[in-house]
Amino acid sequence: MERARRHRLRHSFRGLIVPVLFLIAWEAGARLWLAKAILIPPPSAVIRTLWALLRDGTLEEHTISSILRVLSGFAISLLFALPLGLVMGWNRVAHELFDTTVQIFRPIPGTAWVPAAILLFGIGDRPALFLIFMGTIWPILLSTIHGVRNINKHFIWAALTMGADRRRLFTKVVFPAALPSIFTGCRVGMGVAWTFVVVAELIAVRTGLGYMIMEARLIVRPDIVFAGMIAIGVVGLGLDWLARTAMRRFLRWQKGLVLE
Amino acid sequence: MSAKIEAHGLQKEFVDEETGRRVLALEEMDLAVADGEFLCLLGPSGCGKSTFLLIVAGLETATQGRVTLDGRAIGGPGPDRGVLFQQLALFPWRTAIDNVAFGLEMQGRPRADCRARAASFLKLVGLEGFERAFPHEMSGGMQQRVAIARLLAHEPEVLLMDEPFGALDAQTRLQMAEELTRIWQQARKTVLFVTHSVDEAIYLGDRVAVMSPRPGRIKAITEIPLPRPRDVAGEEFNALRRLLLRQIGEEAAAPEEKRP
Lengths: 260, 260
Hints:
heterodimer; A: mainly alpha; MetI-like fold; 11 helices; 0% strand; B: 260 residues; alpha/beta; six-stranded mixed β-sheet; four-stranded antiparallel β-sheet; 7 helices; 35% helix
């Protein structure tokens, strides 16, 4: 026990060496070439700015607006992708009907939709939500289809020999069996959604962390740019943690069955 | 006793979709299982014994011939024939008790009734106190017991078992065979038990049907007149063992067909 903890401590200590050296080098570099410090502020200045942004509420405001946007975009995606994926995975005709369309649209990177989003929806929340939707729908859709199609046939057989009809076979066996795969798709989708909210905010809206760092560049406040980037990273980590926790909560039964 | 299950001139041919190769798994197979009988189907792997079991279960269809249950042709899977697969196919998202309750839920019984009944069947297989454990939290032998409880709970008239103890270690295997004998003596169901173990077949069956290798057909049927529980080291047991080994051995000595 004690040894394991010491081992873990040493392990995390080693992991810190490189980041700390990096911060020292950054701080020293920024201070040595003072002229450049206007464009690349030392980490100490970035932290000070981060703190100031937190204290006057700017950071919270932008963060909340970004998170709300991500969650609504994600919810819209889920609303489309989950039913469509379940039907496409379960029903051969539905798969044949929609698969070609999916294959045509899926390879278009979400970022390629930026001009189209602005043309279609102008400026504001709608193009932002559209972009998040276009980015997140694929991982959720594909992993849902995959989850349904790759179900162990013995589960189906067992259910049929216990008298399950087609409807209950779907709701009581196929759906729960596909859940791990669906959740994995959602977790990937959440990461993609966070990427696309920042992209959308750089372009189409006047709130959110993406907007905050873009505007900071225009008014030449590099400290805000870097502070904003740190906030974006931290929130992204938080969202992933949220997705993982939800997964663990809902899929308690598969603990020990899959590699985290 | 009248025949519960009857097969006449059964043939099953598999066609490989990619290569178009045809494999004859069963040919001219005749077999009758009496009501309340425990019949063991013994044969080398790949002789089509599992295929036969799946046809009786209604999960596969015969290419030619006819299988009847109580004189009626088998049209598909149904709760009157319970199947125990070697893979067990316990639902990993359901606890032990909910796995056992599945077939009862399919009958539309009230939830409390399902649970009470499922609990009594878990008790029957010696798993009292493990109601809320998930399959992955249990040992192979315990999972086996849950699967047997699940098989029995919705009271199928016929039990179809496909090498259910194949994945267990020798000791657990013997223990499960003892337990199955005890349960069967109480319930007196018609059992079709597929195995490649001579000892298991003699220990369990009223009769042992030996199958020839591909294409499979019934080669010999031997009565096991020993009283239960049977002594695996007894003289009569040994005599039967020699007899059955010879029946199988003649087949194994014959030139084996090329595998696809």
